Predict the structure.
Amino acid sequence: MVNRKELDPESSLQAAFGARVRSVRESRGWRQEDLAAAMGVTSGHISGVETARKMPSLRFAKAADVAFGLTGTEATFERQWREMSYGSLVEGFPEYLGFERRAEEVRLFEVGLIPGPLQTREYATAIEAGHVRRGSLTVEQAAERVGFLIERQNGFARDLPPLVFVVLDESCIRRTIGGPDVMDGQLAHLLDFADQPNTSLQIAPYTMGEQRPFNRMVNLLTLADRSVIAYLESQTQGYLERELTSVRPLVRSYHQLQTGALSQAESVTMINQVRKGTS
């Protein structure tokens, strides 16, 4: 085929997705027109995804799974799309989410932003809208990411929900996201979270200064067998840690963080003061 564009699957997650669509299609002897008919899209759409000129949507991934008979297997395009949708977090985050859904205890620390499990839909939408304005996401991708976040949050609603301990840097409640109304709703949601029987919410105040042990997001999961998994992020990468020698210092530091942070009662008072503009 003279105009065939060859892709390096290692060059990007999007290229890997497109190359795999092409590979699976060709292994079945299908033309792009055949796959397009099976998925209910145009052959140009198939071509765009296969050559990485067009970013696939969640709907596209699910339709590909149906067309190829992959739904419900371990090798779905939907799973690959979800990994791709988190970009640099692919090395750790999707796997972390699998553990998070089974964890008996969840410990979170965040700087600057309310962590995903505690975000309101409006707050999350405002964050993704910022990505759209900067050109790093399409409107459709932003909506899909918000939907995926809500799906993640639903994973906490179990018959026996996990214990969830959250420590937020003071910047999380003072940094306005989405405007005053969105932020007020988000702070109200934090107060509702703190009122649940299986949760703990603390604020690490600015006055902790150099005593605050973490300068970036840290998640710790305690599983049914009492093993602990850690997930950390840099600006561009996510890391899943399971080795005891790496996780134990993080657990120790998290306990020190909780000791130095405000109590839940004091934290609730601070959040109410921020809502009223008296602090």
Notes: The mean pLDDT is 90. DSSP finds twelve helices and six strands in the chain.
